[in-house]
Amino acid sequence: MSACSDACKGDQAVYRITLALTLFFAAHAFLVTLVPYAFAKEIHTACFGVKVLMFIGMVIGMFYMENESLNQFAEACRVISLIFLVFQSIVIIDYAYTLHFWMIDKEQTSWDIANLSLSGLMIASVITVVGLMFHWFADGSSCGLEKFVLSMTIIVPFFYTVAACTDYIPHGALFPSACVTGYATYIAYTAMLSSTNGECNTLIDRSGGASQWELAIGIIIAVASITFTTWNIGSQSSKLFGARGEDEKNDQIKMGDNYQDQDADEKKDNDEEEEEEENISEEVDGDWAVLETSIMRVCGLCTCKQV
């Protein structure tokens, strides 16, 4: 990193920390799925001191890697980031439906009006912003790609928004469609803004960097989606690993059941042993009876001969 400029050093630092995070959580997920359930739960919910030390060591180790390796990692992230965009869209849909049903469950006219008002406001904002983007980014003769992307940003949301309000989609709703449309418009705006084509991008930043408010919006969206996802998964963690108190109670119940099963097994074994001893005793008694009968018969025969 010594041969880099200040901007390059900043990029390389981000690449190294990102690679350390990627490897750390990938190893964590692989280890949790590999080991037995009880051990996986301890790894997932405890061992934070060991995890922190491991992560710090990984971050330090990343700064000894060559710049070329990190550049290749950055190029791979450009492609893999599509998965993150899809994941973020799913999170927004989940959050939008959660908020939508929360307002519907109020069963009040005021909340229905608020639902429709928010949906209408987002749709109107999208139409306004897309119109401005046609002026900012698609005004030149060589801006065919920009015109296509902006056209799709209007056409595709129009069709799925109309479909969401019909009977073809039983669980469709206007509010989630408006939220997804707003997010798609924001993604289109950031993509247009990053273009280096001066003929199309009239808002191009000559300094080569994004403005503060653009970074702030991106950070807010990313943090909100990740926070909601974490909270949603955390609230359902009992389905994955079980609540701590419930686990202890279940363990006690299982221990009690095990003791009862052991007592029942021991009693069963004792009964079987007693039954076996009785059978042996009966067999012995039977043998003695046969022997006694034989002796009596022999004695009788002898008596008859004497007579």
Reconstruct the topology from this structure:
Blueprint (H helix, E strand, L loop, with lengths): L5 H29 L2 H9 L2 H15 L4 H39 L3 H29 L6 H21 L9 H20 L18 H24 L1 H4 L3 H63 L1
Helix pairs in contact: 1-2, 1-3, 1-4, 4-7, 4-8, 5-6, 5-7, 6-7
Key descriptive features of the protein:
single chain, mainly alpha, 3 domains, disordered C terminus
Describe the structure.
This protein is mainly α and 307 residues long. It folds into 3 domains: 1-65, no CATH class; 84-242, no CATH class; 245-307. Helix content is 82%, strand content 0%. The protein contains 10 helices and no strands. The protein has helices at 6-34, 37-45, 48-62, 67-105, 109-137, 144-164, 174-193, 212-235, 237-240, 244-306. α1 (6-34) packs antiparallel against α2, α5 runs antiparallel to α6 and α5 (109-137) runs parallel beside α7 (174-193). It is flat and about 100 Å long. It starts with 5 loop residues before the first helix and ends with a helix.
